[in-house]
Amino acid sequence: MTEADMSQPNEDQLPLGPWDAGALATLEAWDRSWADACRTMSTDPWSGKVLPLRMVELVCVATSVACTTLDGAATRRHMRAALAAGASRDELMTIVKMATVMAIHSCSLGAPILLEEAAAAGAALPSHPATPTPACDAMKRLGQWNQAWDPFFALDPAWTDAFMATGAGIYSAGVFTAKETELLSIAFDVSFRHMYAPGTRRHIHGALAAGASVAEIMEVLKLCVAQGVAASNLGVAILAEELARPAHGG
Question: Where in this chain does the record put each Carboxymuconolactone decarboxylase-like domain (predicted)?
Fold first, then answer.
């Protein structure tokens, strides 16, 4: 064996990353060349060259548990790996909370359109009595208020404040650094299951301002691409089961 050969990692020592071990083994048996190429690409962020393993796994928890994804198997796999890499319960619970409140993008998208169409139709807007909005005020003090929220605040300030009460604590608890919060937020917004451009731009801007490097942000994007492996984890396993049915001759 040459020195060059010895410097290459053994195939069995490569990280699984986003892969289900059983699906990967089946895929390798069917199409080793493509499986090797896809595994090399998708597991690159696990090399530790840019982000620490703990952060890699936390990003994967975020993209798996997001309300736009809800991949139970991947969430469990990456939560387990994150805990093994030193993540805490509070960190993982914070990601679950972030994954929950990202559903506000339904209003970010829909409320401006509602206001425009209501104006075009001459429809009356709902009236609301003046009421304190302490949670919204807190989000503004934290610098977490997004102008995209102004339209639904105008439509229903009391409900908006109730929603923001669920978000203010997430960002004020100090579980993550500002940079980590922004990197995780990028993952939520840029994931191919979501692709929310306004939030992606806002959080990339925030990540750079918080000290993140371009390489670190690119690593988050690569982890979101690695999430595509979920198609193989699901499809290969089902195909193997269907091929094993008697009708297919085993």
Answer: 46-103, 157-226
Domain CATH code at residue 211:
1.20.1290.10
Q: Is residue 70 part of a domain?
A: yes
pLDDT (mean) for 169-173: 78
Specify the 3-state DSSP secondary structure of 1. Answer: coil
- Residue 44 in any domain: the answer is yes
Amino acid of residue 173 = A
For 230, residues 6+ apart whose C-beta sits below 8 A from its C-beta are: 18, 71, 74
Give the CA distances from residue 188 to residues 40, 85, 145, 236, in Å, rounded to whole numbers and listed in that order: 24, 21, 17, 26
Residue 196 identity: Y
Angle at 137 between CA 131 and CA 139, to 5 degrees: 135
CA distance 84 to 76: 12
Average pLDDT over residues 229-243: 97
Q: List Cβ neighbours of 141 (8 Å cut-off, separation of 6 or more).
A: none
Q: Give this prediction's pTM.
A: 0.89
User: Cα(14)–Cα(162) distance, rounded to whole angstroms?
Assistant: 46
Q: Identify the helix (H) or strand (E) that includes residue 80.
A: helix 72-84
Q: How far is the C-alpha of 166 from the C-alpha of 128, rounded, in Å?
A: 21
| Owning domain of residue 31 | 18-119+133-236
